[in-house]
Amino acid sequence: MHRRRSISPRSLARILIKNRRKRYLDTHPEYLDSPSLELADPLGYDRLIRRFQSSSQREAEGRKKGYSGVLEADLWRSEAKMEALREPDHAAKMRYRRDEKGQIVAEEKDEVPSSKEDGAQRWKKEMELRFLRGDDGEFDYEKVDGNEAYDDHRTFERDEQERWFDEEEPQWTITDKGTVDSQNGDNSPHLVGQTGVQDF
Questions:
Q1: What is the rounded distance in angstroms from the CA atom of residue 93 to the CA atom of residue 77?
Q2: Residue among 4, 29, 25, 1 nearest 161 (CA)
Q3: Which among 33, 38, 109, 196 has most CB atoms closer than 10 A?
Q4: Residue-wise DSSP of the chain
Q5: For the segment 16-36, what is each residue's pLDDT rounded down to a tens digit?
Q6: Per residue in 67-118, pLDDT tens?
């Protein structure tokens, strides 16, 4: 019989926390739409979101942030570009170089999104993974990680039920009375008990 590999309590705790964080994002989609996330990765935002914005869209976003917010984002973006050129992170998903005009651009063409929708989808995925890892220093993770309200009870109950069935062994009882097998014609013991298959 196939047995599930046992998971350590530490791994279970990490899975529980990530599931709660994912559930939080599912119930609070506004987190991933927050303009302040630009500061999490100014270069990624520039490459995946800003490049597709019209000037009127950038202006509208600027009004949401306010003057100081725009200034802060521009400063972060400039510093991040200079840092990426000075000390390239070889583990980073996106690397930067200067083109013929002196502009800072991505090294890999396949890292450039093909459309506005592609860019937005990739940005949201990156920010979701960042949140699940616990890398948002501005967010109070304790209010999610320790909150049972973000548990997916249906999945938990299903997992518990599957674990119970995996641990359960079929039980057989052989009666004294023999029965004739209609296909073979032999007189064999009659098995009574759980087969593991439910008939509805």
A1: 17
A2: 4
A3: 38
A4: ---PPP--HHHHHHHHHHHHHHHHHHH-GGGGG-GGGGGGSHHHHHHHTGGG--HHHHHHHHHHHHHHHHHHHHHHHHHHHHHHHHS--TTSSS-EEE-TTS-EEES-GGGS-SSHHHHHHHHHHHHHHHHHHT--TTS-THHHHT-GGGS-HHHHHHHHHHHHHHHPPP-EEEEEEEEE-TTT--EEEEEEE--S----
A5: 899 999 999 999 999 998 878
A6: 677 777 777 777 776 776 677 665 555 566 667 776 666 656 666 788 999 9
- In sequence order, the β-bridge partners of residue 193 are 172
Q: Which pLDDT score, from 0 to 100, does residue 1 have?
A: 47
Q: How confident is the model at residue 176 (pLDDT cuts 50, 70, 90)?
A: low
Q: Which long-range contacts (CB under 8 A, 24 or more apart) does 1-9 make?
A: 1/166, 1/169, 2/166, 3/166, 4/162, 4/163, 4/166
- Bridge partners (DSSP) listed for residue 185: none
Write out the two tokens for 156: 């938990």
What φ, ψ does residue 129 adopt, rounded to 5°?
-60, -40
